Amino acid sequence: MKAVIPLAGKGTRLRPHTHHLPKPLVRVAGRPVLAHLLDELLGFGVTEMVFIVGHLDEVIRRYMAEAYPDLPVHYVVQAVQDGTAGAVKLAEPFADGELLILFADTLFEADLSPARALSPEWSAVIWTKEVEDYWKYGVIVTGPDGAMTRIVEKPEQPVSRLANIGLYYIRDSALLFEGIDHVLASPTGASGEYYLTDAFQYMVDRGARIRTAPVDSWHDCGSPEGLLGTNRHLLEGGAASVSPSARLSECSLSEPVLVGEDVVAEGSILGPNVTLERGARVVDSRLADTIVGAGARVGGARLDGSLVGAGAVVRGVEGRVNVSDHSVVEATGADEGR
Questions:
Q1: Which residues are paired to 303 by β-bridges?
Q2: 0.85 exceeded by the pTM?
Q3: 240-330 adopts what CATH topology?
Q4: In this predicted model, what pLDDT tens digit does every residue of 274-315 receive, in sequence order?
Q5: What CATH number was assigned to the domain covering residues 2-220?
């Protein structure tokens, strides 16, 4: 099985971090978002990837060559950001069989086995999450047998509470790409883009049966708030730990906390929901709901709901910061953590 992952977006909600780092490589719970996704897919048995790249694609190629050197990956450049249908269309030369399609700004916990045990009458599976705030999402309307009948974007009325999370299995890839061609030949949606979900509607309208399947959880990684929420979920789920090589002196930990290799922390209160990456240094500070990147330095600070990039320096600051790699934010007169 192959997985198609669109990675071309600029990740504007995660700026300034995504000015120099592709959104899929932003880190949560000590690892890039993309690594969490890939390990899930490899564990399921996916053997080949098709990456639709664009913004900072050379960084993604370099990361994959270093972190997953034996994984076959096809790269296709999306020169024009014309939506999810346009992105997946670019994978067609490599789509000669069953496909998983997913997006790299969310993490999910889902049973993927319906893709393995799908009976012949079904053409695809769409994973969904039941939500209360249905008006924020595209929702899947189903018939009595659980088959999709239509997708409604941000409905005003509760026609369905099954939110489309952006995880799909496609058995009939030929019909999918026929649908994508139909979408690309039609007027764009309200945002000026072509939507992959319209291709699913095309499939259904031509008799294809698309099954829905539930996910246990679904976590946004496309915004600072979403990233911190996902960090907490992963730490509470087992990622929390303190490396044996970390040196903590006169520190108080409020779980969940992840302290990486060679971290130095002195006289600080850490947690809850704090990740300190390899080599970070924290002195005389209090951190909660915060991710501190590798080699960053935080001194005399009181941070809550913050992202501190790798190699950044934050001194004497109280409140919330969103600081990209190798930046300096320093209150006047601050001299801690040098």
A1: 287, 319
A2: yes
A3: UDP N-Acetylglucosamine Acyltransferase; domain 1 (2.160.10)
A4: 999 999 999 999 999 999 999 999 999 999 999 999 999 999
A5: 3.90.550.10
